[in-house]
Amino acid sequence: MDANMTRSVFGLILVNVLLTSLAQVILKAGMSADAVQASLSQGARWSTAWVVGSHPLVIAGLAMYFASAVIWLLVLARVEVSLAYPFVGLGFVVTMLLGWWLHGDALSLARVGGTLLIAAGVAVLARS
Fold first, then answer.
1. Which DSSP symbol is given to 43?
2. 76 within a domain of the structure (yes/no)
3. Which terminus of the chain has fewer CB atoms gathered within 10 Å of its CB, N or C?
4. What is its main location (predicted)?
């Protein structure tokens, strides 16, 4: 296993981060859907599981998670996990921005500042 980060491996990591972040916001949209919320409020476990598990946005989000896991396996086959894993922190930045853009999530100073600290940490690790 090569410990060096190539452009292709870095590209796979970025695709993984993007897919994981998109999966989050798509799952949020699915879980916020009227049919899912109505089923959750009724509390019937099996019918709620069916409604959630068959919702197209939930299925799409889970499919994106699966695709990101396959891509992550390709990354792990090429570089050390201690080199690759810190880049997953970029998902905090991407997910925060997508949540704000697509769902109207609040961007407080604490959230933005904390996320920037994570991004700075990833940048430091990327240079090591």
1. T
2. yes
3. C
4. membrane
